[in-house]
Amino acid sequence: MQLKFTLSSLVLIVLMACSTPKMVNLDPITVIENPKGASIYRGSYPKINDILHTRLDISFDWDSAHVIGKASILVKPYFYPTDQLVLNANGFRLNSVSLVKGYDKKPLKYSYDGKLLRISLDRMYTRDDQYHVFIDYVAMPNKLKIGEDISSANDRGIYFINKDGRDKSKPRQIWTQGETECNSNWFPTINGTQEKMTQEIHVTVPNQMVSLSNGTLEFSSLNGDGTRTDSWRQEQVHSTYLTMLAVGDFSITKDTWRGKEVSYYTEPAYASTAKLVFGKTPEMMEFFSNKLGVDYPWDKYSQIVVRDFVSGAMENTTASVFFEGLNMSEGAYLDENHEDIIAHELFHHWFGNLVTAESWSNLPLNESFATYGEYLWEEFKYGRDQADLKGLEDLSVYLANNRKSEPNVIRFDYSDRENMFDEISYHKGGRILHMLRKTVGDEAFFEALKLYLIKHSYKTAEIHDLRLAFEEVTGLDMNWFFNQWFLASGHPVLTIRNSHDALKKEVIVKITQDQDLSKTPLYRIPMAIDLYFGDQVDRKEVVLDKPIQSFIFSALSRPNLINVDAEKYILAEKNEEKNTQEYIFQYQHAPLFMDRFEAVMKLKDRNEDIEARKVLMSALKDKNWLVRHTALSVIENLSDEERKSVHQTLKQMVLHDQVSQVRASALNKLWKHYRFSDNKEVFAQSAKDKSPLVIRANEALKQ
Asked: Is the dihedral of CA 276, 282, 287, 292 positive or negative?
């Protein structure tokens, strides 16, 4: 699932200077924490019965927002003999519960408290037996009471959008959202990540509407009364929370990947841009398949955009659902293409759908990987610079989180499973996976992921299964890494002091781990330290594993730059100060986006220095858009002569920069500081920009 996180706080600080903030109204969220000292263990759910296959025959009463259903469920005891089946069924009206024997149905005794359906079977069944129950029911999701039946309005499981058609600005739709345990609000099942099944859904809809569900559409039957029944079949097992259904007036844009159907469901008004928005999906599928060594494992892949979705997106098996922000015009696509969300939900089809976290405590095995999938796509498609910008966003979102020092990544003591969907499971977890990759190397990293996926395909896994895969591939004990990063809280806080002893001809790098060691581990951190002597770079590989540690290197002269964490991969707060000349050298010679961005962020606070201003002016042409955007702040502090020297650069940014945020900000600077210069033609051309962000910036100039 992709939550609707914004850009990181660090990036927002840069962007807010020249862009208009957009207010978004969301339902209030109450975060419930455990009382201090509480002893809670959230383990995996016990497996008493195992659903093998579910068939649903579904129709809808739009007026009352009821789901009229018949569920045929094939079950077997998991291991121990049992004469009872307990199903989750929240807020149903039950018409009958039967045992199916051939063509006959035998009524079964049951008890029902509005949430759990306890069915007494006709005898004791062993793990070698299968039995088939039939349930005739009506689900009433809109009658579920918040605080009693469900935690919030986002937990209804199935939603009727504009059900009476009175809102002419909004289409009539039905869609579901199962994660975490909401699918039991519209069909009887067993909740939890651990329960996997095959399924078929026969859904009756108005003729003018289309439907989408997991798997493939086997056939459609006209009913002669203005309705049609679509029959969907999912033949590979997947977790019950990943079952989905959507109904509405959608245009279907077809694509393919290796002969498999790839389709994009959008409102008809956005059919013309469906391929613009989703058209990189086949390329993503090819990249992820090759990178992981495991081909996309499902029969087809569909993506659908719905109204009023309760999250950013959801990775239902073969049928991901996206919020209406992906209904985009060509112009809106220029400002935010949401490729990260598209990559996130697709990567889940390996990490989350093919191999599923065995409990909500292990949710980062789903979400951390999906978040890192965003990084991998950016790296492949746009290069490391752009990927590292994505990594910076993730790091900054995590560090801005005021709960960052509290919960473990894998946590068995959550107060509410919904609390697992946070910056720790997503952003911190994604950065941890990047550190794991840097620690073992690319070849070992992807070979271990391949082993993990193959070994646990169509099954569940816990964090130790991932560790064991890495240990099997590398031959190394990886407990130290997993214990300090996945099974503990917090992060390193590093104070870095560099010095050069001319008499001893030595460089000293002193690093202190300043985090609270009573709550947070003393970290073992392999890292590289680069010493720059002119054009020569001397890399030193070290391991930080003490509270206070000094690394001493021979150096005939003082280095131009000492670059600690040269790969810029450590998830940490780093306190380090360099002089202006060192930051200038870092910008001009260190190779990574993070090197340049860090230098520009420091130099823009030292703009009284003419040399710092020169670097910032040169950074207006940097290859990374965020560096260019950040460098624009120097315009405020330039002398008249300096401002003249970058006038042409600024005009080129307004007209030709590939990123609309930069164009809009450059336009603002041009208007503010060059109002009496010859900019008439630039303003006229900029007014024709297709970007809504630039259009708003132009309109603001007229006020």
From this structure: positive
What is the model's pLDDT at position 21? 27
Residue 406's nearest CA partner among 347, 488, 307 is 488
Residue 622 has what pLDDT? 98
Is 547 a domain residue? yes
CB 602 within 8 A of CB 590: no
CA distance 573 to 399: 8
**Residue 29 C-beta-side C-alpha neighbours within 13 Å:** 13
Per-residue pLDDT at 10: 43
Decide: 458 and 70 in contact? Cβ < 8 Å.
Answer: no
Q: Give the pLDDT confidence score for residue 4 in this predicted structure.
A: 57
pLDDT of residue 480: 98
**Could you tell me which of 188, 191, 179 has the C-alpha nearest to residue 155?**
179
Residue 509, CA distances (Å) to 29, 501, 540, 576, 675 in order = 45, 11, 11, 11, 49
Please, which residues have CB within 8 angstroms of residue 416's CB and are 6 or more apart in sequence? 32, 151
Q: Is the pTM of this model over 0.85?
A: yes
Q: Chunked in runs of 10, what are the mean pLDDT values of the chain (703 residues)?
A: 55 35 36 62 97 98 98 98 98 98 96 98 98 98 97 97 96 98 98 98 98 98 98 98 98 98 98 98 99 98 98 97 97 97 98 98 98 98 98 97 80 95 97 98 98 98 98 98 97 97 97 96 98 97 98 97 98 96 98 98 95 98 98 96 97 98 97 90 95 95 79
Q: What DSSP letter does each residue of 103-124 carry, written as one string?
A: TEEEE--EEE-SSEEEEEEEEE
Q: In the listed set 249, 280, 297, which residue is the last one of a domain according to the structure?
A: 249
- CATH number, domain of 511, equals 2.60.40.1840
- Yes or no: say if 366 and 426 are a contact pair by the CB < 8 Å rule: no
- Give the single-character DSSP code of 150: B
pLDDT of residue 439: 98
Of 485, 514, 548, at which residue does a domain stop?
Answer: 485
Counted domains in the chain? 3
CB burial of 395-423 (b: ≥16 within 10 Å; e: otherwise) equals: bbbbbebeebeebbbbbeebeebbbbbbb
d(CA 381, CA 384): 9
The residue range of the domain holding 534 is 491-577
Beta-carbon contacts of 489 under 8 Å, excluding residues fewer than 6 positions away, are 405, 406, 407, 408, 409, 519, 520
**Residue 558 and residue 477 share a domain:** no
Q: Identify whether the C-beta of residue 15 lies closer than 8 Å to the C-beta of residue 401.
A: no
**Phi, psi torsion values for 380, nearest 5 degrees:** -70, -45
CB 1 within 8 A of CB 313: yes
Q: Judge contact between 294 and 281, C-beta under 8 A.
A: no
Q: Which amino acid is at 517?
A: L
Q: Do the Cβ atoms of 274 and 267 come closer than 8 Å?
A: no
**Residue 622 domain flag:** no
Distance (Å) of CA 599 to CA 220, 378, 384, 567: 61, 23, 18, 15
